[in-house]
Amino acid sequence: MIRYAVPALLLVLAGCSGDDASSPQAEPTPTKATTEAATEAAAAPAPDWQPVPGPADRAHTLNARGTDLTGATHRETFLTETHSLVVEQDPQETEPARAVLTDLESGEKTVLDGGSEVPTTTGGSWALGADSLVHATVDPAGAYCLATVDLASGEASAGWCAPERHGFTGARVTAAGTTLQTFDDQRPSCRTVGTLEGTEVVPFPDAPDCTAWDGLLLDSGPVWSVVRDEGNVERVDLFAQGPGGPGDVVELGAGTSGTLIECGGSAYFVRDPQDDSGPARLVRWDGSAAEVVYESPAGPAFLETPRCGGDALTVTAYAEGGDEQVTAVLG
């Protein structure tokens, strides 16, 4: 069964590589389920957004304890309440990535690179969770695999490996599990969003074959996005497992691919403006209801993928009405 958690903004997916603008469409008449969910969402606490000092074009990631990481070209940053991870990619894409993991309590640093027992590789997906981090690696036989590093022990292991002529991206680590998007070499590629279970990736039970894009796990179940037009993969619709378990699918509405994250136990994603002048929005799904928790200044506008620092969330907005970067401690 599909239940609407918020009004799904309909849009026309057209063009190639996202170059053609879609025409704005009217919102559907709310159903009884939509109205109930909106009422429940209105009672949930909204984040207390505070401005981040400095220009908005320097992306910050902050946590509740005041740690502040800034991104840069060829540099990825990840932050929790206890650890930071800074990944430097080779601009020429010929050398394996070099990452520095820092224990924020002790200050101890661990370097991960091509010489590690489980080596890094060129490019590839990285993710940091409360207890572990994952990154791409290549095993001695040349297979493309996912490595997991236990933060407490420092031990690393290579688990699931992609079949020949397949790959993976979009790794996400939450308290509920690790998820990936796997893909094959077809044109367009057939994609699967699933959960890492030992040396297997188990597909989300309700995500469609081949057209899913993002995925993550909450305690309430999986959240995923679906591409409606392979000619414009930036535009997706978001779905989540409802309280009824597998088969109870909640439609969360339109979103932007690649922006789905978990922070503070909830899922967040960006919804780009649905017309030429509207704001960009940040939507939260907490496992029971969905709501817009941030709107950019007046459009045209867009939001970068939100950045989580454990229990703090930071958002950067670029808009005709003014750029801004704000952060909030969750919970």
Question: How would you portray this structure in words?
Answer:
The protein has 331 residues and is mainly beta. The chain has one helix at 32-42; strands spanning 2-4, 50-51, 60-62, 68-70, 75-79, 83-88, 98-103, 109-112, 126-128, 132-138, 144-150, 156-161, 167-174, 177-183, 191-197, 200-203, 212-218, 221-227, 235-241, 249-256, 261-263, 266-271, 281-285, 290-295, 301-303, 307-308, 312-319, 324-329. The strands form seven sheets. A five-stranded mixed β-sheet has the order 1-20-19-18-17. Strands 2, 25, 26, 27 and 28 form a five-stranded antiparallel β-sheet that branches. A hairpin with a 3-residue loop joins β9 (126-128) and β10. The longest helix is centred in the first third of the chain and has 11 residues, at 32-42. Residues 26-47 have a biased composition (Low complexity). Residues 18-62 are annotated as: Disordered.
Brief summary:
This protein is mainly beta and 331 residues long.
Observed structural traits:
Lipocalin; 331 residues; 1 helix; five-stranded mixed sheet; mainly beta; 28 strands; five-stranded antiparallel sheet
Helix/strand layout:
Blueprint: E1 2-4, H1 32-42, E2 50-51, E3 60-62, E4 68-70, E5 75-79, E6 83-88, E7 98-103, E8 109-112, E9 126-128, E10 132-138, E11 144-150, E12 156-161, E13 167-174, E14 177-183, E15 191-197, E16 200-203, E17 212-218, E18 221-227, E19 235-241, E20 249-256, E21 261-263, E22 266-271, E23 281-285, E24 290-295, E25 301-303, E26 307-308, E27 312-319, E28 324-329
Parallel strand pairs: 1-20
Antiparallel strand pairs: 2-28, 3-4, 5-6, 6-7, 7-8, 9-10, 10-11, 11-12, 13-14, 14-15, 15-16, 17-18, 18-19, 19-20, 21-22, 22-23, 23-24, 25-27, 26-27, 27-28
